Amino acid sequence: MTEFRSTLQSVISELFFRDHARPVEWINLLTLSAWLQFLITRAADFAGPRYPAFAALSPTVWALVIAAIVAAQLVAMWPTAKSSFIRFGAMTMAAGMWTVIAISFWVQADTAPISARTNTVLAIAAAVSSIYLGVGAGRRR
C-alpha cells in the first residue's frame, strides 16, 4: 500500500506540479478549451457585434487556431513529454492567444472591465511562464 501511495503521489506531482509553469499550463488548457467550446457551440454569437476584434477571421478559423493551441498544450503536458522546448512553444502560442482575447475585450466599449483585466492577467501569466520555460529554468526536469 505504501508503494502504491508513493507512486500515486509521484504521478500527481508530475502531472499537476512538475514546476512553476505547470499550473499555468493547466489553466491555459482548461480555459482555452472553454473558449473552443464557446466557438463551436455559439459561433453565431461570436460572429456578432459583441466581438468586433475577431471579425478578421470566421469563428471556424478561430476555433481551429484555439484547437491547435489546446492540442499543443496537451502534447506538451503529456507525461512522457520531457522537452521544455515543446512546452515553451505551446505556452508562447497560448500567451499570444490570450493577448488577442485581452485586446478584443479592451477595445470593446460595452464589455465589463473585469473581462479585459482577467484575460490580460492570463496573457501575462502565460507570457511569464513561457519565458520561464524558454530561458531554461523549466529544463531542470
SS content category: mainly alpha
Give the integer mean of the pLDDT values. Answer: 84
Query: How many domain units?
Result: 1
Order of helices and strands: HHHHHH
Helical coverage, percent range: over 70%
Task: List the uncertain runs.
Answer: none
Which radius of gyration do the C-alpha atoms yield? 17 Å
Question: What's the β-strand tally?
Answer: 0
User: What distance lies between the first and last C-alpha atoms, to the nearest angstrom?
Assistant: 27 Å
Fraction in beta strands: under 5%
Shape: elongated
Count, helices: 6
The largest pleated sheet is described as: none
Question: What does this 3D model show about the protein?
Answer:
The chain has six helices and no strands. With 141 residues, the chain is mainly alpha-helical. The chain has one domain. It has helices spanning 2-16, 22-41, 43-47, 59-77, 84-106, 113-135.
Keywords:
single chain, 141 residues, mainly alpha, 74% helix, elongated
In short:
This protein has six helices and no strands. It is an all-alpha fold and 141 residues long.
Break the fold down into its secondary structure elements and pairings.
Elements lengths: L1 H15 L5 H20 L1 H5 L11 H19 L6 H23 L6 H23 L6
